[in-house]
Specification:
Protein name: Retrotransposon Copia-like N-terminal domain-containing protein
Keywords: Membrane, Transmembrane, Transmembrane helix
Helix content: 55-70%
Largest sheet: none
Shape: extended
Number of domains: 3
Radius of gyration: 37 Å
Number of strands: 0
Mean pLDDT: 76
Distance between the termini: 78 Å
Strand content: under 5%
Organism: Nymphaea colorata (pocket water lily)
Length: about 325
């Protein structure tokens, strides 16, 4: 009986003319205008066919919806369902926007942006790494000085104070324990940055250049991997280039000097390798033309991987 009644009701619904259907089929038009009421009515009509009193709540709800729809303009009626759906979905959605104008957000802010710690000897590796970390968090203005402290009566002073102290925390947590007391009581992040640059970033100091040069010529692979050995050399080469910043007047002469310098560094890299790489070292030197340092490193690293795979196979 229920199925027969349901089919008859659907047929009657299809024959009925619904105002404002916009070319939709009667069931679709009914759902677009009274989606909540139609869905609520379907269950009571099917389940309680023999008890008409159970239909009273649903009929009351239908009357309310019809009255509301009649009061709305024609162009807004199709939007009724979407407004209800969007309101329900927005109530269960959490706003994850990390930034808001005039508001400082502390969620997901790291206490440390790099793992490398500044010592008295690695400033020229630490400085670019720290710069990348701070820039990735959007706080470069606090160490470059382009965002000075505003007046304390300003509306943005509290935000500036919180963000500047966050940068100070990053710098403080990324230096060694013996350097931390030297910058602890500095007023701003910019002051911290300047002090570290003045102490460890000075160019063309003879004693520092001598120390770097001595370290470069003393580096050997030893128990390190090829990648670790090459990384240690590159770090010292960058520091050496920083100290020997020659003001060239002829670009052609500069290019010749740079090419010659990198050729010497290829020889230095090959000389520091372990004896197990004698085969690939001889192959590179006997090729006639010295390849770039990147190509040489790639060949040596491939040989290291081949040896590791061979050992695992045994």
């Amino acid at each position: 009986r229920r199925s027969v009644w349901f089919r008859r009701s659907v047929s009657a619904q299809r024959r009925a003319a619904l105002p404002g259907s916009g070319g939709l089929s009667p069931p679709s038009a009914a759902l677009s205008c009274f989606s909540g009421a139609a869905l609520l009515l379907s269950l009571p009509l099917v389940r309680f066919r023999r008890s008409p009193f159970c239909l009273l709540p649903a009929l009351c709800l239908l009357c309310v919806v019809l009255c509301c729809c009649s009061l709305l303009p024609t162009g807004l009626r199709p939007l009724l369902d979407w407004s209800v759906i969007m309101a329900a979905s927005s109530s269960s959605t959490i706003n994850t926007n990390p930034t808001e104008i005039g508001v400082f957000r502390t969620e997901n802010v790291p206490m440390q942006v790099i793992t490398l710690r500044l010592t008295k000897e690695n400033y020229f590796s630490w400085s670019p790494a720290m710069t990348m970390g701070i820039a990735g968090c959007g706080r470069m203005a606090y160490i470059h000085g382009s965002n000075p402290e505003p007046a304390r009566t300003s509306d943005v002073w509290h935000t500036w104070f919180l963000e500047d102290n966050q940068v100070k925390t990053w710098i403080f947590n990324s230096v060694s324990a013996d350097i931390q007391p030297l910058i602890l009581r500095k007023k701003t992040a910019r002051d911290m940055w300047i002090v570290l640059e003045q102490m460890y970033g000075q160019k063309k100091t003879a004693i520092r250049t001598y120390q770097v040069m001595k370290t470069v010529y003393g580096i050997r692979q030893g128990n390190s991997s090829v990648a670790e050995y090459y990384g240690a050399l590159k770090a010292k080469w960058k520091e050496l280039d920083y100290h020997s910043d020659i003001p060239w007047h002829c670009p052609h002469d500069q290019a010749l000097y740079v090419a010659h310098e990198w050729e010497n560094r290829v020889f230095l890299f090959l000389a520091g390798l372990n004896d197990e790489f004698e085969g690939v070292r001889s192959q590179i030197l006997n090729s006639g033309e010295v390849s770039s340092i990147e190509d040489v490193y790639s060949c040596v690293e491939a040989e290291e991987q081949r040896r590791l795979v061979t050992k695992e196979g045994k």
